[in-house]
Amino acid sequence: MSGWFLRATEEQKDQALRNADSAHVVDVNDDPTFDPRTEDMQIENKYIGFLGELVVCNKFNWIRHFPPGHDTFIHGYTDATDKDGQNIEIKTRRAFYPNHSNDMMVLQVEECDLAVLLFLWEEEGSGESYVVVVKWFNRSFLSTRSWNMWISRSIWKQNLREREVPKRFL
Q: The pTM is what?
């Protein structure tokens, strides 16, 4: 396995699922036009995000802000804080999802000092889950782009290839 891979522990996976279930209860809105995804998909998407947060915060010794919106007077709505007090946003995806054009994914983040885009996948047959950093975004980049992470399909693929992610995910 590549040195870029961060393996999710069973405890982290269990915690991410508990976090996703509890966060979903808070987010439930009876209006289907508010979020057209199925309830299972909403929970799955939260699980993906929370698992990425847990793994990367553990790796870099960041303080994770959970539940979302907790102590916002201190750190706003960011996902984590590092030892120097920098506010960090963490976004995790299982694939490249173009939403700006066929070749561009744009993800909005809270005002922060650092944002990280992660890729999460499961190794076939083993049930092992891995997270890899796709790209880091600093405050200067984000503040000049309306607090959006911009990444093209070609950069996404190039970075995953350099990190030796299995070819089936490229």
A: 0.90
